[in-house]
Amino acid sequence: MGDIKAEPFVFPAKPEALALIVIDMQRDFAEPGGFGASLGNDVSRITKIVPDVKRLIQGFRDAGLPVIHTMECHKPDLSDLPPAKRDRGSPSIRIGDEGPMGRVLISGEPGTAILAELAPIDGEVVIEKPGKGAFYATKLSDVLKEKSITQLVFAGVTTEVCVQTTMREANDRGYECLLAEEATESYFPEFKAAAIAMIRAQGAIVGWTAHVDDILEGIAPKETADA
Known about the structure:
The protein is an alpha/beta fold. The chain is built from 10 helices and 10 strands. The radius of gyration is 17 Å and the shape is globular.
């Protein structure tokens, strides 16, 4: 493992310090009848990235590198759901309401689950987060410190909200961050493009971006890369 081809310049990958974070690839954001669809969004934009997210996850597993999954969800009693979040907009169903896949974005409900194709395997950390960023009110910082992780590759949804928020949180904490371009998506293509531009602006002010193929090439075990 070495440098990964990226923008605005190569990402100096360190195998002993690298992990993948897959943000919120949940049924409620990707399937008809879920929370994302209730907001009027085209959820097919999310499902189209599943193959690339799956390839990225498998590449990290094959390389023996940690994979961390996040799920946006709340406690059943809604004690960690502020009114400012629950009451915004005009969705047909709100967080905590009963929907086609159980209570919306509530821990343990069917719709909150990660898509089956991307499900965590034994030993992979799953972070339940009540906010947009994965560091707020979670154990993520402790997990990364325990694993001596200092570099993070990001995939998941949505690019401009939970993914970018977590990258910015990570950047402020001193982590080097790389976004996998084909393995992230927004309900709004212009928002994804703007987020990518913001992340890598001014010499990677928040982080780097790279294509999935280049990331996989960079993290592949040497015998595979040389084959």
